[in-house]
Fold this sequence. Notes:
This protein is mostly helical.
Amino acid sequence: MEENVLPDPPSAARPRSDQALYSISVAAELLDMAPQNLRVYEARGLVEPSRTAGGTRRYSDDDVERIRHIGELLDAGLNFVGIKRVLEMELELERLRTELHGAHASRDRRGDA
C-alpha cells in the first residue's frame, strides 16, 4: 500500500516559530500536560503567551519548546526560581553569542586578523 505524502508547503505558507497559533487546550495537549500547568508557568513568569484582543492565550511553537524545556528543568530537580534564572542566563548567553559573532564578522570584513 502506497502512502500519500504531500510535499512541504512553500516557506511563505509555513507559520513562523514565534507566531501564536495554539489555544491553551491545544498547547496543553501537544505537551501532554494539564492547561493549569501552563497557567502556573505564566503566573511564575516562565512563559508569556500572546493574547487575542479578547484576552485568550495563544501559544507559538517557540512557547511550546520553551515549556518542554521548563519540564526538563523541573525533571532535573530545579524549582521555579532556579528555572527562571536558567532561562535568563540562556537568553543572555544567546545574546552574547550573537554579539560575538557580529564582532567577528565585522573584524573579518575589515581584514583584521
